[in-house]
Amino acid sequence: MRGILRIGYRLLVNDRGKFIALLLGITFSVFLMIQVTSMFAGMMKKASATVTNTGAKMWVLDSSVTNVASSIPLPDYVLDAVRSIHGVKYAVPLYSGAGLVRLKDGTYQAVSILGLDDTSLFGRPVLLQGQISDIYAENGFLVVKDEEFGKLHNPGIGTEFEINDNRGVIVGIAKVPASGLFGMPTLYTTFSRAVQYIPSMRYTVSYILVEPASDAAIPGIKQEVAKLGYESLTEAEFIDKITHWYMFGTGMGINLLIMTGISFVVGLSISGQTFYTFVLENLEKFGALKAIGAKGRELVYMILFQAGITALAGYGLGVGLCALLIALAKFRVRDYASIITFNNLGMALGMVLVIASLSSYFAVRRVLRIEPFDIFRG
Question: Has this prediction a pTM greater than 0.85?
């Protein structure tokens, strides 16, 4: 068997033109599939940035909320009711909104503002500069140093600005795991100051962050919150809800499926036809192998081996090319939203294997119908 596979490898690589065409077809297909799905994964990571950065195990929200940016304020009594639920270790309010900052040069910049619980500051970011206690100072704000930091003219400790005709002062510079989706810098302050500075509706609690006493208490907390007429989600469930809404509630999902489907068809058509042509051009060699004693099963293994080598080599080249272009794009555009995940890689690998299987299927059928005397008679 090893000798048969070695012969198959020689047949494949000796025809350089066909081999390169096969590689290019699969490489281009993998590149498109991973590029499109990686862009979607990157955007979903940014869309869920507030959930990830806060680190709360459970979120209480209005059931109509589809993503973090579309928060619906909760009545104050809901916070008290959640705190009284058996199994809740503690629960704190979170304000999430947007404001318009006026910089020193007179320009305006939209920002995302998160108001942390005044007592615990639960969900606070990691500080690079400054002291967290300074957030209690008059007009104190923390600014996140991410891809959007430069839009505030790279402020330092003590930088002043105006927000809704109120004075603000940067008292700390922080970092977070993920930046937001909509290209706005992020400011943190206390809940009471956020409510005071940002115009809001009658209710001011955007979300309630819950720390359960144990994982076993989570189902009971969900049931009690549902009785209040609201929804409680774990961090992973909230992220999944956001992803589901962007996938099926907007045009992103349809565009993703169309582009992935086109990539699959391109790879299948190019690779399938090229591989089938390669087999047709080498029919006499397969017939000769049959004549000297090679079994049909061995020829099938040879074709599958050839298709597998081509598919895996093209897959590796496609992944490498996509990773290289993403790295170059992030080097030039810092807020470029694209990440390669294990799900992207697994999906692309599965499709490549389907392409290889379908390509080899028609080739196998043609080879198994070969009769050695037909080859020598020709």
Answer: no
